[in-house]
Write a structure and sequence with these properties.
It is a single chain. The chain has 217 residues and is α/β, with parallel strands linked by helices. The protein has 2 domains: 105 residues, Rossmann fold (3-Layer(aba) Sandwich); 105 residues, 3-Layer(aba) Sandwich (Rossmann fold), CATH 3.40.50.1860. It contains 12 helices and 8 strands. Helix 6 packs across helix 7.
Protein backbone atom coordinates (compact mmCIF):
# COMPACT_ATOMS: atom_id res chain seq x y z
CA UNK A 1 0.00 0.00 0.00
CA UNK A 2 2.85 2.40 0.90
CA UNK A 3 4.48 1.95 -2.51
CA UNK A 4 1.24 2.90 -4.31
CA UNK A 5 0.28 5.87 -2.14
CA UNK A 6 0.65 9.34 -3.68
CA UNK A 7 3.39 11.74 -2.56
CA UNK A 8 2.26 15.11 -1.24
CA UNK A 9 4.24 18.02 -2.71
CA UNK A 10 4.11 21.23 -0.64
CA UNK A 11 5.62 24.45 -1.91
CA UNK A 12 5.12 28.19 -1.87
CA UNK A 13 3.31 28.80 -5.18
CA UNK A 14 1.67 26.69 -7.90
CA UNK A 15 4.78 27.08 -10.07
CA UNK A 16 7.35 25.63 -7.69
CA UNK A 17 4.81 23.07 -6.47
CA UNK A 18 4.55 21.76 -10.02
CA UNK A 19 8.34 21.78 -10.33
CA UNK A 20 8.48 19.54 -7.27
CA UNK A 21 5.64 17.38 -8.59
CA UNK A 22 7.57 16.84 -11.83
CA UNK A 23 10.60 15.62 -9.85
CA UNK A 24 8.46 13.19 -7.88
CA UNK A 25 6.74 11.96 -11.06
CA UNK A 26 10.20 11.28 -12.50
CA UNK A 27 10.72 8.63 -9.80
CA UNK A 28 7.63 6.78 -10.99
CA UNK A 29 5.49 7.89 -8.03
CA UNK A 30 2.24 9.84 -8.24
CA UNK A 31 2.45 13.41 -6.84
CA UNK A 32 -0.39 15.40 -5.24
CA UNK A 33 0.22 19.16 -5.32
CA UNK A 34 -0.49 21.47 -2.37
CA UNK A 35 0.68 25.09 -2.97
CA UNK A 36 0.52 27.39 0.07
CA UNK A 37 0.20 30.73 -1.77
CA UNK A 38 -0.84 32.22 -5.11
CA UNK A 39 2.39 34.03 -6.04
CA UNK A 40 5.89 34.82 -4.69
CA UNK A 41 4.90 38.02 -2.90
CA UNK A 42 1.90 36.50 -1.12
CA UNK A 43 4.15 33.56 -0.27
CA UNK A 44 6.57 35.92 1.48
CA UNK A 45 3.65 37.60 3.28
CA UNK A 46 2.50 34.20 4.52
CA UNK A 47 6.00 33.35 5.72
CA UNK A 48 6.25 36.48 7.87
CA UNK A 49 2.87 35.85 9.53
CA UNK A 50 2.78 34.57 13.11
CA UNK A 51 4.20 31.09 13.87
CA UNK A 52 0.78 29.96 15.06
CA UNK A 53 -0.90 31.06 11.82
CA UNK A 54 1.74 29.37 9.66
CA UNK A 55 1.68 26.14 11.62
CA UNK A 56 -2.11 25.97 11.55
CA UNK A 57 -2.21 26.56 7.78
CA UNK A 58 0.43 23.91 7.07
CA UNK A 59 -1.17 21.45 9.50
CA UNK A 60 -4.48 21.85 7.63
CA UNK A 61 -2.73 21.09 4.32
CA UNK A 62 -1.00 18.04 5.82
CA UNK A 63 -4.36 16.79 7.10
CA UNK A 64 -5.75 17.13 3.56
CA UNK A 65 -2.74 15.26 2.20
CA UNK A 66 -3.25 12.43 4.68
CA UNK A 67 -6.94 12.25 3.80
CA UNK A 68 -5.88 11.90 0.14
CA UNK A 69 -3.84 8.83 1.07
CA UNK A 70 -0.39 10.46 1.16
CA UNK A 71 2.13 9.00 3.58
CA UNK A 72 5.21 10.98 2.46
CA UNK A 73 5.61 14.73 1.97
CA UNK A 74 8.11 16.47 -0.33
CA UNK A 75 8.45 20.09 0.81
CA UNK A 76 9.84 21.70 -2.33
CA UNK A 77 10.39 25.18 -0.94
CA UNK A 78 13.40 26.51 0.97
CA UNK A 79 11.77 29.57 2.51
CA UNK A 80 8.68 27.58 3.60
CA UNK A 81 10.96 25.00 5.19
CA UNK A 82 12.83 27.77 6.97
CA UNK A 83 9.72 29.50 8.32
CA UNK A 84 7.78 26.46 9.57
CA UNK A 85 9.09 23.79 11.97
CA UNK A 86 8.20 20.56 10.19
CA UNK A 87 9.73 18.28 12.84
CA UNK A 88 6.82 18.46 15.31
CA UNK A 89 4.32 18.32 12.43
CA UNK A 90 5.90 15.08 11.19
CA UNK A 91 5.69 13.62 14.71
CA UNK A 92 2.07 14.71 15.14
CA UNK A 93 0.83 13.47 11.77
CA UNK A 94 3.01 10.38 11.36
CA UNK A 95 3.97 11.56 7.87
CA UNK A 96 7.48 11.18 6.44
CA UNK A 97 8.38 14.82 5.65
CA UNK A 98 11.53 15.81 3.74
CA UNK A 99 12.64 19.42 3.25
CA UNK A 100 15.72 21.10 1.72
CA UNK A 101 16.96 21.79 5.26
CA UNK A 102 17.45 18.03 5.74
CA UNK A 103 19.98 18.15 2.90
CA UNK A 104 21.71 21.30 4.17
CA UNK A 105 22.36 19.68 7.58
CA UNK A 106 24.55 17.06 5.91
CA UNK A 107 25.95 19.43 3.28
CA UNK A 108 27.42 22.10 5.57
CA UNK A 109 30.21 20.00 7.16
CA UNK A 110 31.63 19.20 3.70
CA UNK A 111 32.56 22.85 3.02
CA UNK A 112 34.56 25.68 4.55
CA UNK A 113 33.14 28.58 2.49
CA UNK A 114 29.75 28.74 0.73
CA UNK A 115 27.78 31.35 -1.20
CA UNK A 116 24.01 31.20 -0.74
CA UNK A 117 21.37 32.67 -3.06
CA UNK A 118 17.88 32.56 -1.54
CA UNK A 119 14.49 33.87 -2.62
CA UNK A 120 13.88 36.04 0.44
CA UNK A 121 15.34 36.83 3.84
CA UNK A 122 13.14 34.19 5.49
CA UNK A 123 14.80 31.49 3.42
CA UNK A 124 18.25 33.03 3.83
CA UNK A 125 17.97 33.15 7.64
CA UNK A 126 16.60 29.62 7.95
CA UNK A 127 19.26 28.09 5.71
CA UNK A 128 21.98 30.09 7.49
CA UNK A 129 20.74 28.78 10.86
CA UNK A 130 20.78 25.20 9.56
CA UNK A 131 24.27 25.58 8.07
CA UNK A 132 25.75 27.09 11.23
CA UNK A 133 24.10 24.51 13.48
CA UNK A 134 25.81 21.77 11.47
CA UNK A 135 29.09 23.64 10.89
CA UNK A 136 29.73 26.65 13.18
CA UNK A 137 33.06 27.31 11.44
CA UNK A 138 31.49 27.76 8.00
CA UNK A 139 32.11 31.05 6.19
CA UNK A 140 28.88 32.05 4.46
CA UNK A 141 27.99 34.86 2.06
CA UNK A 142 24.31 35.34 1.29
CA UNK A 143 22.04 37.22 -1.10
CA UNK A 144 18.28 37.37 -1.78
CA UNK A 145 16.65 37.50 -5.21
CA UNK A 146 12.86 37.60 -4.97
CA UNK A 147 12.63 39.58 -8.26
CA UNK A 148 14.27 36.60 -10.00
CA UNK A 149 11.55 34.34 -8.61
CA UNK A 150 8.90 36.71 -9.95
CA UNK A 151 10.58 36.60 -13.37
CA UNK A 152 10.60 32.80 -13.34
CA UNK A 153 6.88 32.74 -12.57
CA UNK A 154 6.33 35.22 -15.42
CA UNK A 155 8.03 32.84 -17.86
CA UNK A 156 11.20 34.80 -18.63
CA UNK A 157 13.72 32.52 -20.36
CA UNK A 158 16.65 31.27 -18.22
CA UNK A 159 19.19 33.16 -20.34
CA UNK A 160 17.26 36.44 -20.13
CA UNK A 161 16.74 35.95 -16.42
CA UNK A 162 20.44 35.44 -15.69
CA UNK A 163 21.20 38.59 -17.66
CA UNK A 164 18.43 40.80 -16.26
CA UNK A 165 19.11 39.93 -12.61
CA UNK A 166 22.91 39.91 -12.93
CA UNK A 167 23.17 36.40 -11.53
CA UNK A 168 26.52 35.75 -13.17
CA UNK A 169 27.84 38.81 -11.37
CA UNK A 170 26.46 37.46 -8.08
CA UNK A 171 28.23 34.15 -8.70
CA UNK A 172 31.42 36.03 -9.59
CA UNK A 173 31.22 37.98 -6.33
CA UNK A 174 30.97 34.69 -4.44
CA UNK A 175 33.91 33.28 -6.40
CA UNK A 176 36.12 36.33 -5.87
CA UNK A 177 35.38 36.14 -2.14
CA UNK A 178 36.73 32.61 -2.07
CA UNK A 179 33.49 30.64 -1.87
CA UNK A 180 33.84 26.97 -2.86
CA UNK A 181 30.33 26.69 -4.32
CA UNK A 182 27.02 28.53 -4.68
CA UNK A 183 23.91 27.00 -3.10
CA UNK A 184 20.69 27.50 -5.07
CA UNK A 185 18.67 28.18 -1.93
CA UNK A 186 15.28 28.40 -3.63
CA UNK A 187 13.54 25.57 -5.42
CA UNK A 188 12.68 27.94 -8.27
CA UNK A 189 16.36 28.41 -9.05
CA UNK A 190 17.16 25.12 -10.84
CA UNK A 191 15.14 26.76 -13.64
CA UNK A 192 18.20 28.85 -14.53
CA UNK A 193 20.93 26.50 -13.26
CA UNK A 194 22.20 25.45 -16.71
CA UNK A 195 22.13 29.01 -18.06
CA UNK A 196 24.06 30.29 -15.05
CA UNK A 197 26.52 27.37 -15.15
CA UNK A 198 27.54 28.50 -18.63
CA UNK A 199 28.43 31.92 -17.20
CA UNK A 200 30.41 30.89 -14.10
CA UNK A 201 33.10 28.41 -13.07
CA UNK A 202 31.68 28.23 -9.54
CA UNK A 203 29.97 24.88 -8.75
CA UNK A 204 26.19 25.22 -8.28
CA UNK A 205 24.49 23.11 -5.60
CA UNK A 206 20.86 21.98 -6.03
CA UNK A 207 19.48 19.89 -3.09
CA UNK A 208 16.65 18.25 -5.07
CA UNK A 209 18.33 14.93 -5.92
CA UNK A 210 19.36 14.25 -2.32
CA UNK A 211 15.87 15.25 -1.13
CA UNK A 212 14.34 12.58 -3.36
CA UNK A 213 16.74 9.99 -1.98
CA UNK A 214 15.85 10.91 1.60
CA UNK A 215 12.14 10.81 0.79
CA UNK A 216 12.29 7.07 0.13
CA UNK A 217 14.76 6.04 2.88
Amino acid sequence: MEQRSPIAVLAGTPVDTEMGAALVAGTGRRPRSFPLAEDPRSQTAFQISSPAEKTAAVRAVLDRAAEAGCRRVFVYCNSLSASVDFGPLAAETGLRIVTPLDVYRTLAPRYHRLGLLAANAQGLAGIERTFFTSNPALDLLGACALPAVVSIEAGLSPEELVERHHLAEVAEWFRLCGMEAMVLGCTHFPYFKEALARRTSLPLIDPAEEMLRLLFV
